[in-house]
Design a protein that fits this description.
- This protein has a single domain, classed as NagB/RpiA/CoA transferase-like (Rossmann fold, 3-Layer(aba) Sandwich), CATH 3.40.50.10420.
- A hairpin with a 4-residue loop joins strand 10 and strand 11.
- A seven-stranded mixed β-sheet has the order 3-2-1-6-9-10-11, sandwiched between helices.
- By secondary structure, the protein is an alpha/beta fold.
- It contains four helices and eleven strands.
- It is about 25% helix and about 20% strand.
Length: about 190
């Protein structure tokens, strides 16, 4: 049992210990597991674009799956002053640019309201066996997910297995429905 602060330190270090090759192989394994989730009849899929500098799961493989299955793909732009995210449809014309935090974001485009989104792939540093997650601590995703429809499917992506329990969960923290690791789909 650990608190979020301890987990952030632990998992940033674990991620940094992975080679570029391991990152790619594990990201591909996660994408292959995503194919097994009961989500493919849905239409609107929100996905985060990986921050390579933070060694996040490379979502490019999942992007290819979504695109190959002709899904509506939604990506976001974060406003660090308001902690709000604006969601845009990813099209062939979408220009993507890294912001000051190295987050690849759409410059502009066709806006999509949060309540239209069916499935959200959620970035995280760690998660526990109850589906609680630890992010970077800014609360963007908790705020965004609480604006989505109640039955939105929330899927975490992680290189590592769950912790037993995250001790400092708050009321505003939104639980995951699934978390996909290279070896397993965890269901909550």
């Amino acid at each position: 049992m650990k608190n979020k602060k301890e987990l952030r330190i632990k998992y940033k270090a674990l991620r940094n210990s992975l080679s570029k090759n391991e990152l790619e192989e594990m990201s591909l394994a996660i994408a292959n597991k995503v194919l097994l989730l009961p989500i493919w009849e849905k239409t609107y899929f929100h996905i985060f674009l990986s921050i390579t500098e933070l060694r996040e799961v490379n979502t490019e493989f999942i992007l290819h799956l979504l695109s190959g299955k002709d899904k509506e793909i939604i990506i976001s732009k974060a406003d660090f002053d308001t902690r709000n995210m604006t969601h845009f449809l990813l099209t062939d014309n979408t220009k993507i640019k890294k912001n000051e935090y190295n987050i690849p974001e759409p410059v502009d485009g066709i806006e999509v309201p949060a309540h239209k989104i069916d499935v959200v792939f959620v970035p995280l540093l760690a998660f526990d066996k109850k589906g609680n997650r630890v992010g970077y601590g800014k609360g963007f995703y908790d705020k965004f997910l609480s604006d989505c429809k109640p039955d939105v499917i929330k899927i975490g992506l992680s290189f590592f297995d769950p912790e037993e329990l995250i001790t400092d969960i708050f009321e505003g923290d939104v639980n995951l429905d699934y978390c996909v690791t290279p070896n397993l789909i965890h269901s909550f």
